[in-house]
Amino acid sequence: MNLLHSITLFTTMDALALAVWWLAWLAISLAIEYPPQRFPSVSHLMIGFRRDWMREMITRQPRLFDSSVLASLRQGTTFFASASMLAIGAGLALIGNTERLLGLAQDLTLETAPAVVWEIKILIVLLFVTNAFLKFVWSHRLFGYCAVVMAAVPNDPDHPKALPRSVQAAELNINAARSFNRGMRSLYFAIGGLSWLLGAAPLIVATAVTFFVLWRREFGSGSRQALIGTPH
Questions:
Q1: How far is CA 135 from the centre of its chain?
Q2: Ramachandran region, residue 154 (left: φ > 0; alpha: ψ -120 to 50; beta: rest)
Q3: pLDDT, tens only, 131-186
Q4: Which of 58, 82, 180, 222 could staple 232 via S-S, CB 3.0–4.6 A?
Q5: H helices of the chain, where?
Q6: Three-state secondary structure call for residue 194
Q7: Contact, 175 vs 80, CB < 8 A?
Q8: Residue ranges covered by each domain of the chain
Q9: How far apart (Å, rounded) are the C-alpha atoms in residues 175 and 139?
Q10: Cα–Cα distance for residue pair 189/30, rounded to 1 Å
Q11: What pLDDT, in 10s, does the model give residues 76-102?
C-alpha cells in the first residue's frame, strides 16, 4: 500500500485533529520559551536562578553542594531518556505485530480500519517520543559540559577567570535545562496523542487538556508565584 493511498484512509477530521495537536505543541513551546517580559513562565524565571547559582558557586567552599545538585539533574535526564527509549521500542514492537495491533484497535474502538492506519498513528506518536529522547540525551550531555566548566572555575573568587567561567557554566546549564524541558513537553503531547487511537475528537480534547496543563504549570501555578515572590 503506497503512501498516497494510506493518506486517503484518514478523514478530514483526522487532519484537523493532527493540525491542532502539532500547532498546540508549537504554540505552548513558543509561549514558554519566549514569554512577555511582564508575564514570564516558570522556565524563563528559572534562567535567572541558574545564573545566580553559578555566581554563588564561585564563593562556596567546598563546592560539594553544587556537584550534588548537578548530579541530580543529570540523573533526571538519564531516567527520562531511558524511559523514552523503552517507549520507542515498545511502539515499534507493537507496529511489527499487526494482529495484536488490530486486536488493540478493536478493544479501543468500534470502527474498523486497516492496520496501516493504526501503524501510522503510532508512528506519529513515536515521532514525539523520539524527539523527547534526543532532547534528553542532548540535555544530559550539556549538563556534562556544565560539570566540566564548573570544575574549571578557579577556587579563588578574585581570580580573573572565575566569573567568566561561571557565566559559561550558567549558559550551558540554561541550555541543558531548555533541552530537558523541550523533551518533557514532547512526552506530554505524545501521551495526549495516544488518544488518537480512539478517534479525532478525543485527540482534540486531549490536546486541549495537555495545553492547559502545561500553561497552568508555567503561568498559573503556585511554584511560579513562589519564584516571583508572590504568596499563593
A1: 7
A2: beta
A3: 999 999 999 999 999 999 999 999 999 999 999 999 999 999 999 999 999 999 99
A4: 222
A5: 3-7, 12-33, 42-59, 64-96, 98-108, 115-151, 162-193, 200-219, 222-227
A6: helix
A7: no
A8: 12-30+41-227
A9: 8
A10: 15
A11: 999 999 999 999 999 888 887 766 666
CA 109 from centre of chain? 29
- Where does the pLDDT of residue 111 fall: very low under 50, low under 70, confident under 90, or very high at 90 and above? low
- Residues 179, 185: Cα–Cα separation, whole Å: 10
Give 141-145 contacts, CB < 8 A, sequence gap 24+. Answer: 142/172, 142/173, 142/175, 142/176, 142/179, 143/70, 143/73, 143/74, 143/77, 143/172, 143/173, 143/176, 144/74, 145/172, 145/176
CB of 115 closer than 8 Å to CB of 127: no
Amino acid at 20: V
In whole angstroms, what is the distance from residue 86 CA to residue 152 CA? 36
Evaluate if residue 3 carries a pLDDT over 70: no
